């Protein structure tokens, strides 16, 4: 593996793996799918998903998208639940630094490609960045309508009344819309999309975001995309408008009041502390306040 | 029968048919399915389709309601703007819109017509949400109102249909269909599989709603008592063909076709 470590395209060097693990034809196929996905925002494009050297559910979809779009001079950041140092993030980052030899970073502004699971970084993204989401279940209609043939027809005919049935059930059961993650959105006034299991706290960040956002579902073999500066609207009711989570506490480390907080139990007595889920954002703020 | 309605309105409504069916044919084999069915249905009219098992009743209902395309023939529907729409040359989107706004379909088994995983309120509200109602309070109100209309305790609005009895499920299905104010409702043996007392209650309710809302109904049944109670007009089917049509009382009291005579005489008298 060390032979691969610092090399650019393996095709040129005769390495054991192609650049970024997948062979060129596969990457081309995925890129064609991505072009279609970008052309029809929110539409799920089927693609020939490949076996990746990690189990489904660990980010195989996101990895295939990343592999397809990665170039030799890209800088990659991988986060899992907002953190750069969790097992999944560390192994995917190392995987690409080995098989593609690309530079990696944990700093959001320096990255050109960010693969993520569960979060959109707190630091605003720019229009030369690409955000790649790992998606477990791409079909937002599935929980109400299990038949795939039927959900596809519903997408085609824009027959989305059923999405509100789910929200109605939430209000009827809990008194408010209790869906806290994978909160359905309408993209570009057309397709209803599952924004992958990000907290609904991150939904407003998708709206008119300057970065390109690509979604890959490995098990279900679907790609979809939100192009830069696209309208993304969260579904709601007139008398129960969409609202994001708020915390009464601030981050125990950096004192942030506007970031998504994780609740941690820190001792056996059940003492709770809240810290930023986005580790890079938290570190940036610590540095700023430290100076 | 609609004495309470202003006469002038009734006249305008009755002037033109709601549904025009001509030469409708769908065959699965020789004389299996249904063939050469033509009729007109007027607003507020209840048409009963009776016949033995396998005579093509349900096939005909499927053809009429846009569920399966016919081999030959056409179904034309006059919408509330007075425009004629040919069901099978219309786009699927138009057909679907029709099916969830101006039409209703009451399935024989309530489980097929209901979403069993969501509450009664959500079941009733689904059509309204599909039509773009985005106000929870109003959906809720409609849910409570329709539960009352079909004689289900409004306190059960948040219960899922699987906790309801068979009769209640069937009534919930009816409410779910009527909430959008349809003009035409298809019913496939709505009282099949219910016990006799529940059947009587459901029929009573249906009869009231049909008269009150001036619904046109096509009802498939093999129960002549149901047909007698609900239908204005009857079509008797046998081996994929309509063998006799006429006013319900006329067909049942003075059957002309040999098969109809057999059917009528085979009803057990208690």
Question: How is this structure best described in words?
Answer:
The complex is a heterodimer of chains A (291) and B (270). With 291 residues, chain A is an alpha/beta fold. Chain A folds into two domains: 203 residues, Bacterial phosphonate metabolism protein PhnH (Rossmann fold, 3-Layer(aba) Sandwich); 46 residues, no CATH class. Chain A contains eight helices and twelve strands. Chain A starts with 9 loop residues before the first helix and ends with a helix. Chain B is an alpha/beta fold and 270 residues long. Chain B has eleven helices and ten strands. Chain B has a six-stranded mixed beta sheet with strand order 6-7-8-3-9-10, with helices on both faces. In chain B, strand 1 and strand 2 form a beta hairpin. The longest helix of chain B has 18 residues. In chain B, 43% of the residues are buried.
Annotate the secondary structure layout:
The complex is a heterodimer of chains A (291) and B (270).
Chain A: H1 10-13, H2 24-39, E1 45-46, H3 60-69, E2 75-80, H4 87-99, E3 103-104, E4 113-117, E5 130-134, H5 148-157, H6 161-174, E6 185-187, E7 191-193, H7 203-206, E8 212-217, E9 222-226, E10 232-234, E11 261-265, E12 272-276, H8 279-290
Parallel strand pairs in A: 2-3, 2-4, 4-5, 5-8
Antiparallel strand pairs in A: 1-9, 6-7, 6-10, 8-9, 11-12
Chain B: H1 7-15, E1 19-29, E2 32-41, E3 46-51, H2 57-64, E4 72-78, E5 84-86, H3 92-100, E6 103-106, H4 110-113, H5 120-130, H6 136-149, H7 166-178, E7 184-188, H8 196-213, E8 216-220, H9 224-230, E9 233-238, E10 241-247, H10 248-253, H11 258-265
Parallel strand pairs in B: 3-8, 3-9, 6-7, 7-8
Antiparallel strand pairs in B: 1-2, 1-4, 4-5, 9-10
Helix pairs in contact in B: 5-6, 5-7
Question: How would you sum up this structure in a few lines?
Answer:
The complex is a heterodimer of chains A (291) and B (270). By secondary structure, chain A is α/β, with parallel strands linked by helices.
